[in-house]
Write a structure and sequence with these properties.
This protein is of the alpha/beta class and 463 residues long. The protein has 20 helices and eleven strands. Strand 3 and strand 4 (83-88) form a beta hairpin.
Length: 463
């Protein structure tokens, strides 16, 4: 049977699960959400009670592909030796972001208990001062919501404020709501509260008081490597499962979800599908953001400069592996978790990185460095320099990032990093290093010993 003759994946297939009632609204319909939160929800024992309505970001592609499939998709769990296929049915509804009226309608319903988010770090519009960043798009959202609470808006804080205005307008029967961030940001629940209440205060100060009484902001640490979907993934599903899936999701066997917060209107039994509920997510968040995300960023820049295209290829390079191990050694003393917990985590990371069937592209990881580098490296660099040590892994990262900004390795894809690109374009490499480090942290730019070490690393990387 040719692929075009295969049945299209949809709820009309005999094995397709019935769509559950919508109680969760998700912003940021992408592969990671589907391999992570949607997967945990599908595996919860009460999954039949917890459907997800998921909205895309600005690109409608995911909704266009999943809509005709009734939100169904195939999860391809890619171990080193074999693929496992699973039909996931927790997405009860998929919508492009332009369907803003439907988003407002769902937020106003009392049965909607949770809003989850995966929009990447840049989507939160957090400024360097720790408050809502002021931009033309934020200002436009504020003006639009002041004129019409149901206006279509574009930023994450604007969309959430619009939804909360709709929920408040629906009256007391709306009930409490939990907003749960699932992005790689430290204290992501606090960040979400900050940007939402910051924009709400500009639109309608009384909404801030209502939010304080009716909305909880939970935090989570999420971890599962999920590459982009390729035509090969679609072909494999067709060959193995006998139907055409326009949007399967490849992922690794490992998955972790740590959640801190309250859910006054209830939640799926995520703890029974593998999630961990804790009082404080910070130790796990710090471990993951530093060791996994930090080493990913290091490999994205240094590995691509050395000609590699994926994580498995880069970690197989002895030089890249040594830089990662050096960075982990530097970071470990400054983590909250310690001892066997970190040793086991490092060992598991190496095993995950070596998986040749998870083609996690370095160019994908390299995006938005101006947001990622400060979060993933600054604390370690500052702590090591304060201790009088010169961190080899960190200086290699800084050198590779400067070179990346100057056009080496993976292409620059960092809309918020234009100032850094301008700094790095300075003619001399030492001047470029000083300029980039000074913008990253003024003290680093004046640390002559550190500057010299980074310059030396740039020379090593470009030999």
């Amino acid at each position: 049977m040719t692929p075009t003759a295969l049945p299209r994946l949809g709820r009309s297939l005999p094995s397709a699960p019935v769509a559950p009632p919508i109680r969760i609204v998700h912003l940021g319909l992408g592969n990671f959400h589907r391999a992570h939160q949607a997967w945990y929800t599908a595996h919860a024992p009460d999954a039949a009670d917890w459907g997800i309505a998921a909205f895309t970001g600005r690109r409608p592609d995911a909704a266009d592909a999943l809509g005709p499939q009734g939100g169904l998709f195939t999860l391809i769990t890619r171990a080193a030796d074999a693929d496992r296929f699973e039909l996931i049915g927790s997405l009860a509804e998929v919508r492009p972001a332009r369907d803003h009226d439907r988003f407002l309608e769902l937020l106003a319903l009392p049965q909607t208990a949770i809003v989850t988010i995966t929009v990447t770090e840049a989507g939160y519009r957090l400024g360097v001062d720790g408050c809502l960043a002021q931009s033309s798009e934020v200002a436009a959202d504020v003006a639009a919501l002041q004129a019409d609470p149901r206006a279509t808006v574009v930023t994450l804080p604007g969309r959430l404020v619009g939804g909360l205005l709709a929920r408040r307008a629906a009256g007391a029967d709306s009930g409490a709501l939990t907003v749960l961030s699932c992005d790689n940001l430290p204290h992501n629940g606090t960040v979400t509260r900050t940007v939402v209440t910051g924009l709400a205060a500009e639109v309608d100060q009384t909404l801030v008081d209502w939010i304080d009484l009716n909305v909880e902001f939970a935090s989570s640490m999420v971890d599962r490597i999920t590459p982009a979907t390729t035509d090969t993934d679609r072909d494999i599903v067709a060959a193995h499962e006998g139907y055409a899936d326009e949007s399967p999701v490849p992922t690794e066997p490992f998955s972790e979800w740590v959640i801190a917060g309250t859910f006054p209107a209830g939640r799926p039994a995520w703890d029974r599908s593998g999630a961990r509920l804790v009082e404080d997510v910070a130790p796990f968040e710090q471990r993951k953001l530093t060791l996994l995300n930090g080493s990913h960023t290091l490999l994205a820049y240094a590995g691509s400069i050395r000609g590699h295209e994926s994580i498995d290829a880069a970690i197989a390079d002895p030089a890249c592996r040594a830089w990662v191990e050096a960075f982990w050694d530097e970071a470990e003393p400054h983590l909250i978790l310690s001892g066997p917990q970190i040793a086991a985590y490092r060992s598991a990371l190496l095993e995950r990185y070596r998986n040749p069937r998870i083609r996690h592209r370095l160019a994908q990881i390299a995006a938005d460095g101006s947001i990622k580098v400060p979060v993933r490296f600054l604390a370690t660099i500052r702590a090591e320099r304060a201790a009088g040590r010169m961190p080899t892994g960190c200086t290699t990262l800084l050198a590779a990032w400067v070179l990346h900004l100057r056009g080496h390795g993976a292409p620059v894809n960092d809309p918020g990093g234009k100032a850094y690109v301008g700094d790095a374009a300075t003619t001399g490499i030492k001047d470029a290093v000083v300029a980039v480090l000074s913008r990253l942290d003024a003290d680093l730019g004046t640390d002559e010993t550190l500057v010299d070490a980074v310059v030396g690393r740039t020379e090593e990387l470009t030999r």
